Amino acid sequence: MGRYAGRVALFVIDDMIFSFLKKYKKESILAPLFKMLEAAFELFVPLVIAYVIDKGIGRSDKGVILYGALLLLVLAVIGLTCSIRAQYHAAKAAMGISADIRRELMIKIQSFSFARLEYIGTDTMITRLTSDVNQIQNAVNMTLRLFSRSPFIVFGAVIMAFTIDRDCALIFAVMVVLLTLVVYGIMVITMPMYKKAQGGLDEILSITRENLTGVRVIRAFSMEEDEKEKFFVKNRLLNHMQKSVGKLSALTNPLTFVIVNCATLVLLYTGALKTLEGILTPGQVVALTNYMSQILVELIKLANLIVLVTRGMACADRIKAVLDMTSDEMETLDDYLSGPFAEKEDIKEEIETAGVQDDQPAVEFKNVSFSYEDGGEALCDISFYADKGETIGVIGGTGCGKTTLVNLIPGFYFAKRGEIVVGGKNVRDYNLGELRKKVGVAFQRSMLFSGTIEDNLRMSKADATEEEMVSALKTAQAWEFVSQRKKGLKEVLNQGGRDLSGGQKQRLNVARALVGKPDVIILDDSSSALDFATDAALRKALRGIVTKEYEPVVFIVSQRTSSVRNADRIIVLEDGKMVGLGTHDELLENCPQYREIHESQQA
């Protein structure tokens, strides 16, 4: 239990939070300092009121009353000024920390391998970047403002009470101990519940995202009611968790009021007796009552702060778990930032000089096996090579490992066993920015980003010229519809390319892979939405880009034999194993699996 109390007390210097607060040392010091100054001036208010009552009202001295009123006004102005300054510095630090955490999270997420991202889940990452960071922002803001002020006023009020009367001050001390136990107990119970509630939010986000992405499929199969019920079940569960933790947290205020009001009754009774005995003056009793009221207000604030901090701690743990993730599949930040958006001269020079070696295959798989996390073996003992200028077809049934095989080449995943060599160098030995400049990929799922066509094409090569982009579009059979658009390359696309047909998106996807003139081109079933004539024209254009100066290896993944029949060699996969390797005619004669695929498509 002590561990949780310590973490609340030291929330602002938690390892992760402290690392981000280093940039905001001035704000982190000034915000609590100004709040403590405000609190110090506030502690003098009851003494001034006591002075006015005893010396001014009691003696009908208007000068003392006026002097007391002016003094209270000065204390109020100074307190307000300190409060505004404290709020400014606290907000600046909190907003800055939230921006920095999001930035670090984004960098970390972008550096994860495909396997790691699939393991964590998109929905979890979105929750970390939004809800979790917001909770930390609120917790830091309120901590800098109140975590020094509230305890300072509470203990300051107790000390000031001791300067007035020792017996009455003991009532304050007992009350503070009881309130500390209440707040501490509620915090310890609710912290794991807040973590569980945030996990439930991940599930809600996952369902919502699936429904928004697959809304057409849901409506096509009249599954709206089923999806609603699925959402309602998870929503009710999250609602129950949040209500449960909310009810426990809500106990803080009434329990605080009960304890403080009981203490106030005891204080008034004791003060009245001492006043009758002449030990205390009426002004001193009023001062003690005001200190009790100050404690009540500050403890209510502190109780709310504890709730925020408890949520923030739970969210900080979740974010820290992501930031601490490491694996042998993840490049360093410097490596990652050496990609097309932040090129370094030494990396660029290395890429330019690290061409495919003449005496080595352009791509070679040596007894490669691979399995996904929590899954069976996707590829088993794959061996082949591809020379410069060759076109390699990859074909097989659904789920046979075609996409997995080509995803190993650019290092999206890494082989569990065996070795993959690109340009005479193991893919594990590459800087990933360098490797991915050598490999151009058109993915199975066409993904375009909001922005112009030009912006999308330049993802492959940041400094691509208009001539290079037009050439890539012509090869991908996309220039015809791009040139017909009013703004051509400057045409703005909606997010995901929603204003394009499936075939148009695929062709732009292929063009993006070609712009950078990579040594290895991977077309992962990227012509499935094209008609046979356009598909044939695309394959013919790809063969035409091979020259003496530029001899890329082209991998064509497809389920149609017509798409791969003209390849120099075709790899046939079945259940993760390579069951055939050869030309179209050789495989028709020697590979029953390939022959079966071909004949089924000719029927």
Considering the chains and any ligands shown, give keywords for the structure.
ABC transporter transmembrane region fold; four-stranded antiparallel beta sheet; alpha/beta; 25 helices; disordered N terminus; six-stranded mixed beta sheet; 2 domains; Rossmann fold; 603 residues
Distance between the amino and carboxyl termini = 72 Å
Structural class: alpha/beta
The total number of structural domains is: 2
Strand content: 5-15%
CATH class of the largest domain: Mainly Alpha
Overall geometry comes to elongated
CATH fold-type name of the largest domain: ABC transporter transmembrane region fold
The number of helical elements comes to 25
CATH superfamily of the largest domain: ABC transporter type 1, transmembrane domain
Named at the architecture level, the CATH assignment of the largest domain is Up-down Bundle
Provide an overview of this structure.
With about 600 residues, this protein is α/β, with parallel strands linked by helices. It has 2 domains: about 1-330, Up-down Bundle (ABC transporter transmembrane region fold), CATH 1.20.1560.10; about 345-355 and about 385-415 and about 425-600, P-loop containing nucleotide triphosphate hydrolases (Rossmann fold). Helices cover about 65% and strands about 10% of the residues. The protein contains 25 helices and 12 strands. The chain has a 6-stranded mixed sheet with strand order 6-9-10-3-11-12. Strands 2-1-4-5 form a 4-stranded antiparallel sheet, with no helix packed on it. A two-stranded antiparallel ribbon has the order 7-8. Strand 4 (about 415-420) and strand 5 (about 425) form a beta hairpin. Helix 4 (about 45-55) runs antiparallel to helix 5, helix 7 packs antiparallel against helix 9 and helix 9 runs parallel beside helix 13. The chain is elongated. The termini are far apart. Mean pLDDT is about 80; it is low at about 1-15 and about 330-355.
